[in-house]
Every structure is written in C-alpha cells, then in structure tokens.
Design a protein that fits this description.
Rossmann fold, alpha/beta, 10-stranded mixed β-sheet, binds zinc ion, single chain
C-alpha cells in the first residue's frame, strides 16, 4: 500500500478535488458505517480526501463518525493528515478571516466515541496534541497564526455568552465543533495530524450580532481558495518518508 497524505476537509474545502483525476473508494469499517474516500495525486504524491460532513454538507458535527473516518484513512496507507476546521474566535487578536494552526486543545465534547482503545488499557501521551513537524511545514506556506488553543464543543447549537466567558478564562483562543475527537483518534493510530483553522466569526459575546451558519459559510467562501492553496503548497513540502514523534504515541 502506497503511503498517502490525508486531507479531511471541513465546510468549503471540498473544492480541492476540482479538476483532479478522482477515484472514489468506499472503505468498510468496524464502526457501523463505511467511509467514502476520494483518491487523487498532487505533485505525484498520493492524496486521500474525506469531506468531513459528506458531499452536500449533510452530516452535522455531533453525528460524524470520526472513528470510521480515521480508520478508513489508516487502512488506505495514510500516515499524515492535514485537516481544516471552521472556528469562531474567542480572542480579539484572531479576527474573522484569520488562519490558525492550533498547538493545543480543550475537549468539551461529551457524547462522541473518543478512542479506538475500548478493550485494552491504553493512555496515549498528549503533551504535543498536534504534529509540530507538519505545523512547521504548513506555517511556511501561508500567512498563518502559528499557535492557538482549540476548544471543541458538542454542538450542534452555538455557545451561550456565559460559556464563551468560561472558555476564554480557560485559555481558549478558537472554538469549533469538529476538531475532536478527530485529532485524538489520529494520534492513537500513529498518524501525524495538523489542522488549519479558519476563523469565520467572533464567538457569541465578542460579537454584537446573532451568530448564524450563513456567516460561517460566507467567510469560508472568501477563505477557501487561500486555504486550498496553502494545503496544496504544503503537500509539495511534506516528505512521504520521515521520522516523527507521532509515529510512536503510546
Ligand atoms: Zn508528527
């Protein structure tokens, strides 16, 4: 199995497959579903792409089968993943339109399957939650804020003002619903994982206006081309054979 680079694209990033010679693979997984993966090549490197919400943006964040997605990518030989996540900002230093490479997270999801290790005692090290090697490569390919703490909520509702104030006090910089447990599951499988977070809006208490999903889609529309370019340029710099701490996470 050829080693591949995985892309898990959130809202707006599905355009990365446009004009590519695509092969669709449906991977059956032990997690109750199958995952559709789209294979193509960039710079002669094998790419495996998963649209996180499925084509047509059908699956809400709390219903995504994150285990099935990561399992499918690993089955296809993926050992490095670039993900994208639309986020709200908790911090006036990160205005809408910013692109952020998180270096840490706080997990407030509550009803998702968060591990592959249900039948054995395994405690994965999370002192470096995202792959620093990939973060370094990606940061050189665009105008990105190089660190930030990602807060993940269960959703699908947006947050209250009191929740946002709490997340700010806890040190969160950005907030979304899709970053976890994806980052955890990738690490459990020994996959290098990095996320490009696209700030689409200020969070509830930072914005005078009511938050809407239209606002999120509108900013994604503006930023998608730049984000796709960063991903494609980063792929040129990502080696297929490499050494990284992520390979031995346990
Ligand atoms: Zn790594």
């Amino acid at each position: 199995m050829a080693k591949k680079i995985g892309i898990i694209g959130g809202s707006g990033i599905y355009g990365i497959t446009e004009g590519m010679d695509l092969e669709k693979k449906t991977v059956n997984t032990p997690y109750g579903v199958s995952t559709d993966v789209y294979l193509f090549k960039v710079n002669n490197k094998d790419i495996a792409f998963i649209p996180r919400h499925k084509i047509g943006h059908k699956t809400p964040p709390h219903m995504i089968n994150y285990r099935s997605n990561i399992f499918a990518l690993k089955e296809l030989g993926v050992n490095q993943i670039i993900a994208t996540n639309a986020v709200g900002s908790l911090n006036e230093d990160n205005p809408p339109g910013s692109l952020i490479l998180p270096n840490d997270f706080i997990d407030f999801t509550c009803k998702r399957d968060k591990t592959f290790f249900d039948d054995e005692v395994v405690h994965t090290d999370f002192s470096q939650p995202y792959c620093n090697r990939l973060r370094n490569i990606i940061s050189k390919n665009g105008n990105l804020i190089k660190k930030g703490v990602y807060v993940c909520t269960e959703g699908p509702r947006f947050e209250t003002g009191a929740e946002i104030r709490m997340f700010q006090k806890l040190g969160g910089d950005i907030i979304g619903m899709t970053g976890l447990p994806e980052a955890v599951l990738a690490k459990e499988k020994g996959i290098c994982y990095s996320s490009i977070c696209i700030v689409t809006n200020y969070s509830t208490s930072l914005s005078k206006d009511k938050l809407t999903i239209e606002e999120v889609f509108k900013m994604m529309e503006i930023k998608k081309e730049e984000t796709i370019k960063i991903i494609l340029n980063s792929i040129k710099d990502i080696p297929i054979d490499y050494e990284c701490d992520c390979l031995n996470p346990l």
